[in-house]
């Protein structure tokens, strides 16, 4: 394992930790501008994390060790997921130990622990949020796997680094199946990150909330870790989408100059993606909860159609 690979891996982890809250702040700013409201500061997520880390954590009397450990486990899963996705370079030591299937497993592991922690204290809102979260995950994970399998057919591998190397560092080719897979991935990303039209991260209405219901009993550093983990999850999903559908700009192995140029390219792509997400949320209305299965079933069907289109055109 070379020093350059270790440096690239460490840089990706530090970049994810630093940029994830900034992406959330950028999306909030864009939403405010599009709605003719006064935009909050771009650094507001960092101020929120600083405030929460300096507050005391209040725990329920019947909270088990699982409730205390869940924020650290969820944050660790999201950090590891961000480290697996190639954002600056494809020369990542962790890429050999984990592929796209393991990436979906990390998201599922974090979901299980946050849902168990929400049920642990026995509140009505926590149980409600856990059931809805598991419903969304049960429907979203197969669709995400189908999207990843569609991309893996091109590279003949489920490794994200291999997919990026195949798509970015070869002659430009149009894959019609990627159009269906891209729409399916966008729908799954909205559901997995509790965004409109599936959920609204800015509301606390008990009849509609999903993510907020899971973390209502947390405070202090535990809540800060969960909010940071949510930002990391959005960052990871954004980078997965860029790696699959817009992989250009990611450096090859042992290419320091290309990796230096990959940083502004990544920031630019994330800024454009954040603006498009804010525009989509501004133009969309919150969906009723019983329509969510139909929404995610449509995403699964689109991902399968993309997979079949690629197979048919290949033969």
Global shape = globular
Taking all Cα atoms into account, the compactness measure Rg is: 19 Å
Distance between the termini: 39 Å
* Beta fraction: under 5%
Total DSSP E strands = 0
Provide structural commentary.
- There is one protein chain.
- This protein is mainly α and 315 residues long.
- The chain contains eleven helices and no strands.
- Helix 5 (124-155) runs parallel beside helix 11.
- The longest helix is centred in the N-terminal third of the chain and has 32 residues, at 3-34.
- The protein starts with a helix and ends with a helix.
Write the layout of secondary structure elements.
Layout: H1 3-34, H2 44-53, H3 65-84, H4 100-120, H5 124-155, H6 160-168, H7 177-192, H8 211-214, H9 220-245, H10 256-283, H11 292-314
Helix pairs in contact: 1-3, 1-9, 1-10, 2-9, 3-4, 3-9, 4-5, 5-6, 5-7, 5-11, 7-9, 7-11
Key phrases:
315 residues; mainly alpha; 0% strand
Question: What's a concise summary of this model?
Answer:
With 315 residues, this protein is mostly helical. The chain has helices at residues 3-34, 44-53, 65-84, 100-120, 124-155, 160-168, 177-192, 211-214, 220-245, 256-283, 292-314. The mean pLDDT is 90.
């Amino acid at each position: 394992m070379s020093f350059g690979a270790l440096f690239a891996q460490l840089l990706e982890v530090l970049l994810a930790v630093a940029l994830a809250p900034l992406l959330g702040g950028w999306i909030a700013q864009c939403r405010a501008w599009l709605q003719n409201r006064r935009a909050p500061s771009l650094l507001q997520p960092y101020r929120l994390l600083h405030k929460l880390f300096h507050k005391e954590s209040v725990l329920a009397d019947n909270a088990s060790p699982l409730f205390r450990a869940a924020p650290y486990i969820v944050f660790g899963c999201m950090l590891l997921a961000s480290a697996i996705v190639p954002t600056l370079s494809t020369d990542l030591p962790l890429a050999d130990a984990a592929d796209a299937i393991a990436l979906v497993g990390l998201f599922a592991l974090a979901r299980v622990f946050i849902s168990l922690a929400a049920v642990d204290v026995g509140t009505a809102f926590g149980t409600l949020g856990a059931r809805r979260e598991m419903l969304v995950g049960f429907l979203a994970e197969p669709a995400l796997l189908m999207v990843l399998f569609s991309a893996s057919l091109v590279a003949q591998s489920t490794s994200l680094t291999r997919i990026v190397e195949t798509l970015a560092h070869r002659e430009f080719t149009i894959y019609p199946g990627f159009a269906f897979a891209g729409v399916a991935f966008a729908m799954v990303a909205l559901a997995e990150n509790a965004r409109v039209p599936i959920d609204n991260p800015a509301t606390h209405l008990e009849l509609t909330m999903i993510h907020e219901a899971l973390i209502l009993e947390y405070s202090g550093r535990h809540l800060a870790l969960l909010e940071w983990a949510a930002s990391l999850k959005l960052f990871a999903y954004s980078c997965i989408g860029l790696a699959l559908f817009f992989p250009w700009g990611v450096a090859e192995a042992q290419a320091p100059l290309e990796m230096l140029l990959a940083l502004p390219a990544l920031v630019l792509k994330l800024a454009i993606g954040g603006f498009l997400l804010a525009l989509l949320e501004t133009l969309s209305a919150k969906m009723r909860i019983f329509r969510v299965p139909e929404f995610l079933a449509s995403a699964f069907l689109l991902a399968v159609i993309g997979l079949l289109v690629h197979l048919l055109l290949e033969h």
